[in-house]
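The instructor's notes for this session suggest beginning with a concrete chain rather than abstract definitions. Hand out the sequence below and ask the class to guess, before any prediction is shown, which regions might be ordered.
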Amino acid sequence: MPEMAKQADPRRWKALIFIALAQLMVVLDATIVNIALPSAQESLNISEGNKQWVITAYALAFGGLLLFGGRLADLWGRRQTFIIGLLGFAAASALGGAAVNTGMLLGARALQGVFGALLAPAALSLLAVMFTDPKERAKAFGVFGAIAGGGGAVGLILGGVLTEYMDWRWTFYVNIPFAAVAVAGAIMVISEPSDSRNPSKLDIPGVVLATTGLVSLVYGFTRAEEDGWTAGATIGLFIAAVVLLAAFVVVEGRVKNPLLPLRVLTERNRAGVYMSLGLAVIGMFGLFLFLTYYLQIVKDYSPVTTGLAFLPMIATMITGSTQIGARLMTRVPPRLLMGPGFLVAALGMGLLTQLDTESSYVGLILPAMLLLGLGMGTAFMPAMSLATHGVQPRDAGIASAMVNTSQQVGGAIGTALLNTIAASATTEYFKDHAQGATSAKSLQLTALVEGYTTAITWAVVILLVASAIAFTFVNTGPQSGHGAAATGDGAEDDVPVPVMAH
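After discussion, reveal the predicted structure:
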């Protein structure tokens, strides 16, 4: 049997500060550029057709390369991969801030995605191998879960402040000090167990199939948003994604050293986490998208005021993650945190289906945000921990990459799916009520809100499904066993720590 009680790294809590900082940089970058995009488009004369590529270039590179990045973290070592990811992300951000034309900006965004795909799984897997005591692990993942859930809203706030009071370029430049501090901290205090690397040869066929399959999937949803779900290009991309990812699964079951060992996916608790998290992120991305539009277009809020409007949700998300999830994770089964957490979030989302052009922020939007933050924070924290709980150290990087992949793919799906639903509902409402309208402006705003509430209704259903999956698939007991580093790397099968119940 492996040695169960290894000496804990005395600098692990200092390391958490810099790991969390790096994770915040990656997560907020997914939304910070959204606020700055109109200003960047005007400054660089970016065409309407190329505008969406500022978002898509990042999403494609990040989502498509996450599994590869996770495997490299296992192969090279998480600390080294973490530092390389930080340096590359900072360099790409400097390039984006200095962009003088569309091509330079899009290239910088793609590079950010490439290095983000190295950085994100390395950060999460460092936590998995450094924090093995159950109570400490709960606290560490409480912080990480709060950042993973609330970082997008922080991006909206920071993007608004930087765009309104400085310049859109600072939404890129701001990453440089983040990365510099995180690199310095990583060099000084971050280490990892010497026996946690996976020296196996790289699975090149798996890398090619996974990357092209995920890129096809993410791009398929992007094209669906623009061209429609029945367009030839959209259908072709979806068919390609299914074929490539099916081939990937077949290959992974046969090669000696797979990119993604199927044992990571077939354990029912982790499968439940990947599915429920992916679905929850679909709903959350829809919320950020439509509430940002609603507050700025319908309520005429400034970018800064819009960002500040999300602060209460961040506060309750942190509370749910650190005060509820982290405190109860070692006492109650994860499904009793994840399932109810997603239900509370669905309740908050349900309140937003009552939006109209005159809705009060304090009377409707604020209570909805408080419930959403509390529910998501409570659910995200145990989900993040359980996704890497019980994996062999050699698989920690790839298991972490799967968490990020489910979130990234979920975000791409959420943005495209819910935006398409909203646009269709808005168009339909406008057609049905055009003749009797007394004011074109009023009709336009009412039609927009009708689109938002229709899409939000779908987001409620998606969150309810996420809750049902968490209740059904996640059946492990309280996470009172050891984490990733405790299971050793000698066994061939991935057997979770023996805390199974029910």
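Then share the key points. The chain has 18 helices and no strands. Residues 64 and 215 are 5 Å apart (CA to CA).
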